[in-house]
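I have been asked to look over a protein record a colleague put together. This is what I was given:
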Amino acid sequence: MKIILIKYGELTTKSGNRNLFITILYNNIKKALSNYNVKIIRNRVRMFIETEDDIENIVNILKNIFGIHSIVVATKVNTNIEEIESTSLDIAKRISFKTFKVETNRSDKSFPISSMDFSKRIGGLILKNIPDIKVDVHNPEYLMKIEIRNDYTYIYDKEIPGAGGYPVGVAGKGLLMLSGGIDSPVAAYMAMKRGIKVQCVYFESPPHTSEMAKNKVKKLVLELTKYEPSITLHIVKFTDIQEAIYKNIDPTYMITIMRRMMYRIAEKIMEKEGSLCLINGESVGQVASQTLTSMKVINAVTNVPVIRPVACLDKLEIIDIARKIGTYEISILPYEDCCTIFLPKHPVINPSLKSAEEFEKSFDYEKLILEAVEKREIIKIEKKDMVFDI
């Protein structure tokens, strides 16, 4: 019988919270495989998935679930010497190789043969029954692994790398400032990998930004549902605030003030949603608002933790991750977001906090912020046949 075996990896280092982490991983896997007929069995060291559905499709889904170190498609047999021997030989006969090695892991210490001796026993059986092959313990062409456990034994030949990290949700919730560019979806991916359940906030400025720009962001979120099947997107109308900034603020400080307003709005949404941190795609020095001085002035409006997962990556490194996770081609679509409209020719690189606070006195932003938060659109995006035209 074929079975999928999940290895935890980094979760095993968290002895105090191990059961909680495994429970959350179990629930995440169950949710991701809700369209499949599966039986999931878990313990402290492994998780087992039994199914008669398409194993390849299930493995492809599992590869994107954080908290999984590796995935194995194994043959499950009773822990019986004769059954293990006959099954191991049958498996080896179906594979073409010149050199091989057998590795046994005997967690069931009542099994009467040691791991090393049993590897030699199975290796000898294969040598005797398959011509023109030899053992290579250092660099085998084929490696057979045998895990002997109390009730069952698992035989397999390769491990498929998992996404690693921690299960989404173990670290609580965070709110991502999603712009539609290359960086912020990568920041979302990296935050989710550390166990943060991400919600997203997008700032639109109709009619200055288009419906296509909004749909582009929705499609980015949909792409991220590979890693978390359901993601909430908050869409904030930023038009009134942005126009007030344009009319009242020195052009060189427009981006600085705009970002400060976004942080204020994001913090209020965080309070409503129970989020523990703010996440964004800022990379040190990449643009004027992302110099260390700018970050300090912008960050001054909030006391919540601000996580910048890509802060110390260069653009090419960020692009490589964006390509890997499938967001790059969406991000480069030519639809402007509110950060690019009204963009001054020479934004201030090293803004003064005192100047920023003086400029903000020129209009009543508190009322506009409260209105933007209350009137935001909230959409739950799920990996269930959702389509957004862009």
User: Anything to note?
Assistant: The chain has two domains: 2-161, 173-382. The longest strand covers residues 70-78.
